[in-house]
Amino acid sequence: MDLQKAATLYTILLIQNAGSLESLQDLILQNSTMFQTAGCFRRVNAVEEKHTIVEEYLRLKQQEEGKTLDFWADYLLDCEEQPTAAVSLEDVFATGLSSLPPAGK
Which of 15, 36, 43, 60 is most open to solvent, judged by the fewest CB atoms within 10 Å of its CB? Predict the structure, then answer.
């Protein structure tokens, strides 16, 4: 796990464990950039809203990661299907291999 993901996970855990509205609001303000980037930054009026914020943040991040995976899957498929493409799989992964190894190896 990289440092950024560990910090994000720690922040999410702190928010889930917030015991008061004031501490929840402070945590959200301290990490406002994280929530703004995900598109779920908003004012909270009750400590119970912490579950909604965490669920929304995780759902949006999962959607974002899914889009990234879909993009790369399409890109790699295009590289395989178009041998005359400007970029080959060898270029993408820069392994130095002259051919692709069998799948699953």
Answer: 43
